Amino acid sequence: MSQSRIVVLGAGVSALTTALLLSKNSNYSITVVSKHMPGDYDIEYASPWAGANYLPVAKEGTAPETYERNTWPDLANLAENLPEAGVHFQETVIYRRAKDVGTAIGDWFSELMREDAWFRNVVPNFKVLGKEGLAGGIDGGTSFTSVCINTAIYLPWLVSQCLRNGVKFQRGIVSHVAEAASLHHSGKRADLVVNATGLSSLKLGGVEDSKLYPARGQIVLVRNDPGIMATVSGTDDGDDEATYIMHRAAGGGCILGGCLQEGKWESQPDPNLAIRIMKRCIELCPKLVPEGKGIEALDIIRHGVGLRPMRKGGIRIEKEIIKGPDGQAVQVVHNYGHGGYGYQTSYGCSQQVEKLVQEALQQKARL
Ligand code: FAD
To answer: What are phi and psi of 312, to 5 degrees?
Structure first.
């Protein structure tokens, strides 16, 4: 049987995880085409900026819940068995303040904050914190074992696994999604395109999805290591400012965050926000610095800004036949709009894409 030719457009965590799962099927011949690749840092490329950790935020009974639930076993397997992927287990503490209900951050984290969270039986060691040990202003909390992903190792690792399975990589920029069909490494037209272009699907010809919008995130990467991950449901510095700490695997440094600024495209770090982030993180986790010290004791590697590819209505995983400017139609499977949860949904989403790719190719064969 001849192989089906697939072009995966994009090289963020969504595209690379999809390419990896598809590449396990020897019936597929795959080319990844992308403007940015692992190693690049750019405001149009969200994946390198992520922490990244697994803190479920999906509502119970929804498709994203399935994506998050189905992603945990793969991330846990990487942390347990494949240290070269740059993923490690980390104990995490989640603090809830009653006054954050209804704020942007409070809403984002509303499922994460629940003491009866749906994922309590998914992640190991889920516990509700006793009220007695809580600091002033904190009304409750939970702790569990999560993972933290060093994206600087993990994204190249995904590329290396794809290469091992025969996937070809090439740089390319398309202005219309259907153009990608002419970029398969064989020189022949691709049978199917996977569109994993993140926030760029807002402008990409043939897609132009106006439901997409950015939620700006700003972080400070430091060398200090507090030994745990911690998150709180909000801050007193503004509804869209957040506080979270996570320590990346394999010398990746510690991420201090953050914010969720919806509709903001600014690519440069705001120095005042950076100071607020550092102060809040020390307040949340005093062990970040030696006793009695402040932000001067933080050893900064770099400041960063990334745009989360948010989408009204949530992640889009759908198949569609799209006609290109040359009049030729191509089967497309979309996988974009992963907001602030692209890593923690990556395997679940890619499994769903895999099913749609199979269906689309079967449909094409019947035509
Ligand atoms: P992207 O990474 O943006 O990739 C898009 C790709 O498409 C790029 O390679 C780009 O070059 C390519 N492309 C776009 N247009 C074209 C074109 N026309 N032609 C060719 N190529 C094109 N998620 C978590 O799960 N856990 C976390 O802890 C977490 N923390 C985060 C912290 C911050 C500060 C930020 C900003 C995000 C965080 N996220 C987290 C969210 C996560 O980073 C995103 O959901 C995820 O990276 C989206 O990946 P993607 O592959 O869909 O898009």
So the answer is: -60, 130
Decide: pTM greater than 0.95.
yes
183 within domain boundaries: yes
Ligand 1 pocket, residues with Cβ under 6 angstroms: 9-15, 34-36, 44-47, 49-53, 172-174, 196-198, 200, 204, 217, 219, 258, 306, 308-309, 336, 338-344
Domain that holds residue 18: 4-48+152-211+313-366
| Dist. CA 106 → ligand 1 center (Å) | 23
CATH code of the domain containing 171: 3.40.50.720
Is 367's pLDDT higher than 80?
Answer: no
Separation CA 209–CA 68 (nearest Å)? 24
Task: Measure the CA–CA gap between 149 and 206, rounded to whole angstroms.
Answer: 33
pLDDT in tens, 219-248: 999 999 998 899 999 999 999 999 999 999
Whether 78 is in a domain gets the answer: no
- Asked if 260 contacts 242 with a C-beta cutoff of 8 angstroms, the reply is yes
Cα 8 off chain centre by:
17
Structurally, how many domains does the chain consist of?
Answer: 1
- Residue 280 lies inside a defined structural domain of this protein: no
Q: Are 200 and 194 in contact (CB under 8 A)?
A: no
User: Is there a domain that residue 163 lies in?
Assistant: yes
ipTM of the complex: 0.99
Residue 150 contacts residue 166 (beta carbons within 8 Å): no
